[in-house]
Amino acid sequence: MTAKNFINFHVLISHSPSCLNRDDMNMQKTAVFGGVNRVRISSQSLKHSMRKSSYYESHFGSASIRTRELEKLIPLFVEELRDEFDPDLIAKTMELFVRAKVADDESEDADEQEDNASGNDEKSKKLAVAPWTLEEIKVLCGIVNEVSLTDEEISKAREKAAKQKEPKGKGKKKKSEQEFIDEALTKKRVDAVKKKIDSVRKAMASALDIVLSGRMATSGLMTTVDGALAVAHAITTHAVEPQDVDWFTAVDDLTIDAGETGAGHLDTQQFSSGVFYRYASLNLKQLQVNLGLLENIKATETAESRQRALDIARHVFHLLATVVPSAKQQSFAAHNLADFAITSFSDQPISLANAFEQPVKRDYKEAGFLKPSINSLSDYWARIHRAYGLDEQVCAFAVEDGIKLGDKPALDSLKAMEDWIINGGKA
Questions:
Q1: What angle (nearest 5°) sits at the alpha carbon of residue 426, between those of residues 424 and 427?
Q2: What global pTM score does this model have?
């Protein structure tokens, strides 16, 4: 039997009153689905909470540093690597990592590109937030440190400086001889990195959050990585309208002791409760490529490379079932764990969100949204499985006894599900 390439995770968590994800107006994030309002937790919020969790650090190590403030990050990495490389080299390498300053005399906007690369233009300061890893910079520094210009290359740069034409445009000046030499050195360094890009990618794999979520690079030496893990925005399985508002006060002890009445501070905070559906899909082959275990997505996986991917997959499931965003938790403490989950090995990503397109309604014989949500998810999985003739290896986990998926009883422990995943969908 051909090994399935995708693992689909479907998780139901009932959150007590809380406000786990807010928008720019300090209101709960919402979405309209099935014509009704749902409370939403963004995928960005979920992924951030996962990579910042203690479980992540224990099993995956430190996550990358995500920032757009290069000038603040450089001193941190300089301090970490100062025993191995010159601080100036580290700083220049990191600047190359973001944008390669390679001259192009024949380009009409070469001067504009140089201005943006130099950091003198306001736009150059507004870099996209990007994930950075120390190991990747360390390898880049090692490559760059070995590159220097020969006497012949320096002579050619000087000749190029001497032959340059007078630039067009008011206030523009000829480039100095040193600028041409610096550009020649930069180009040679960039070429050296491109030749050893495999070692750079392997170093990047030290940050599992980049391996899982990917990275988009628009310039420089930063390597674009296709994410292996797709995470959906979590939504409530039922309508939540209207949401509650907490009028809270802060008591000023000193004014009360002085005999005054009233609160020292009055404010409001929106909150609600609900059963949330979390969905994520993990591309096992892409995961192995990003880890540097396979050359490309078409390469044949080995038993060892697949097992490494499955080991990561079981930890991903644990995170999806246990990690909760930290917003307003000191006020609401909605530290709830998953109540039910379906995991399947499949030939494609398959979301079961449409199980809740018609919003779940409470069963008045047994109040609450959790049981009806479990039933809706299980029933929809069975219908989709039958309608499309899906060839999946599937297993369910449930906190409550007596829950089945089809004719198979759900596993009664999180560890049992993790073991099932690491065994490739075998009991």
A1: 140
A2: 0.84
